[in-house]
Design brief:
The structure is a single chain. With about 290 residues, the chain is of the alpha/beta class. The chain has 2 domains: about 140 residues, Rossmann fold (3-Layer(aba) Sandwich); about 140 residues, Aspartate/ornithine carbamoyltransferase (Rossmann fold), CATH 3.40.50.1370. About 35% of the residues lie in helices and about 15% in strands. The longest helix is centred in the last third of the chain and has 21 residues. About 45% of the residues are buried. It binds phosphoric acid mono(formamide)ester. The site of phosphoric acid mono(formamide)ester has 10 residues, from helix 2.
Length: about 290
């Protein structure tokens, strides 16, 4: 049985095949590919995009979705997450989608289930479906010619699981990853070019991916305020000028901290296209793992 814990669980060929399915799902009507299947979502952290897009994807493929309200589940009575998942598994679902603040937790659950586990984000470790939809958005924009393209991932690259998954996935498709962050958010690694300002590298970039400061994973005592941070790291129309750059953000966007209102309206900004692609990619992943 195949799970999706991290993007390396899929080969390059499998990812390209997911993209073929996602492309079809973007234009096709709802169908019954997963009719009779039941998918459980367990979100122990907040979510707007990932949870609803998994649920919409499942419903578009004819599956039923059961979303456990973790706030009122028996974990609040002291049940361990392992027992919770073993009990859900005993009800024989066809897939379990989980988001949790603990790095590595989804992988440890694999031994407790008889169905695929899909990691919807574990702490600062991984967010594989986000990275897949980001890559899909890039891939479609450049008509599949990703080799040699350069991305700047900007902001809290140390604490962002989106950055974690993307810096592992994008180089597999020939994309050079540049990390742009203040010292306090730097990801210590010699594998990537590192910059302290956007201005010094933006002329070389084909893609900018802005990130939200992960305030739930640290406190922002490094800066006097988010506005102070924004002076150097917000994506503005002055920075972008008339450059031919694809602008991405996984959401949620802190307006005028991560990206200005003006740039969010700019046609180069594909934030909502990423969200649309997210439904298609998650549908492709559900189809692959459940029907395997
Ligand atoms: N990008 C992302 O994971 O958004 P949500 O937290 O809203 O799911």
């Amino acid at each position: 049985m195949q799970h999706l814990i991290r993007t390396s669980d899929f080969s390059k060929e499998e990812i390209l095949s997911l993209f073929d399915d996602a492309r079809d799902f973007l234009t096709s009507k709802p169908n019954e590919i997963l009719k009779g299947k039941i998918i459980v979502t367990l979100f122990f952290e907040n979510s707007t995009r990932t949870r609803s897009s998994f649920e919409i994807a499942a419903k578009r493929l004819g599956a039923e979705v059961v979303s456990l309200d973790v706030g009122s589940s028996s974990t609040s009575k002291g049940e361990t997450i392992y027992d919770t998942v073993a009990n859900i598994n005993a009800m024989k679902p066809d897939a379990i989608i989980i988001r949790h603040s603990e790095c590595g937790l989804p992988e440890t659950l694999v031994g407790y289930v008889d169905c695929p586990i899909l990691n919807a984000g574990d702490g600062r470790h991984s967010h594989p479906t986000q990275a897949l939809l980001d890559l899909f958005t890039i891939y479609e924009h450049f008509d599949g010619k990703t080799d040699g393209k350069k991305i700047g991932i900007v902001g809290d690259v140390r604490n962002s699981r989106v950055a974690g998954s993307n810096r592992r996935l994008l180089p597999r498709f020939g994309i050079e990853v540049n990390l742009i962050a203040p010292d306090c958010f730097k990801y210590e690694s010699d594998d990537f070019k590192q910059f302290s300002t956007i201005a010094e590298v933006i002329d070389d970039l084909d893609i900018v991916m802005s990130l939200r400061s992960q305030l739930e994973r640290h406190n922002l005592t490094y800066f006097e305020s988010l506005n102070e941070y924004a002076k150097d790291f917000c994506i503005t129309s002055e920075l972008m000028a008339d450059k031919d750059i694809l602008l991405l953000h996984p959401g949620p966007v802190n307006r005028n901290i991560d990206i200005t209102d003006e740039m969010l309206k700019d046609p180069r900004c594909k934030v909502l296209e990423q969200v649309t692609n997210g439904v298609a990619i998650r549908a492709a992943v559900l189809k692959k793992l459940i029907l395997a």
